[in-house]
Amino acid sequence: MARLPASIPTLATARLRLRPFIAADAAAVTALAGDAEVSRYLLHVPHPYPAGLAEEWIATHRDAWTQGQGASWAITRIPDGALLGTASLRWVRRHDHAELGYWLGRAHWGHGFAFEAAACAVDFAFETLACARVFAQHLGGNERSAKVLTRLGMTAEGVRRGHIKKAGAYHDTYQFGVLRDEYVAQRSAS
To answer: What's the pLDDT at 1?
Structure first.
């Protein structure tokens, strides 16, 4: 993997800015992630969303970055700076791969923001981190994420049956991945 900048960089798309989280974002994260429909499909986000969890989560970002383990970005809308959700990468340098994660507040679903932010993060993984592979997973029933991952050029690689315990029930997770040369070829063709 390539050498990292000193701090989490801000990334941009046509409509979005992906920037490092700040402590003041905690209230918006709590409100967005606290929506039962949002947390329903998130592997590691509980419902109800506990007070103080957003602050704790945001506080972990700097160390994850400086230790070369990951980056989490606040997905914000360029015209007004509104916080829409998050995009993240968790990487393992030894294997030159990164796991993509993302979520949006429910009011922001259906506008193409998830794909736009996820594509920006995947570009960062391949171009800046020099990853050989990017992968992602979603909980069973989350067809919106399946569409985003497929649109990113990821291949459905399998199902881990009963892999995640959430709200007292076991859930399947669906695995997707894309290799660098596949992603580059897809981007060149479009």
So the answer is: 59
8-state DSSP, 7: S
Q: Which of 120, 127, 148 is nearest to 136 (CA)?
A: 148
Whether the full predicted model's pTM is greater than 0.70, yes or no, is yes
Nearest to 108 by CA among 13, 14, 16, 43: 16
Residue with the two structure tokens 């459905």: 156
Question: Is the CB of residue 163 less than 8 Å from the CB of residue 140?
Answer: no
Cβ pair 15, 115 in contact under 8 A: no
Tokens 């919106």 map to which residue? 144
For helices 180-189 and 113-127, the axis angle rounded to 10 degrees is 120
- Tell me the pLDDT tens digit for each residue of 105-148: 999 999 999 999 999 999 999 999 999 999 999 999 999 999 99
- Full set of structural domains in the chain with CATH: 14-189 (3.40.630.30)
Token pair for residue 90?
């968790």
Distance between first and last Cα of the chain? 26
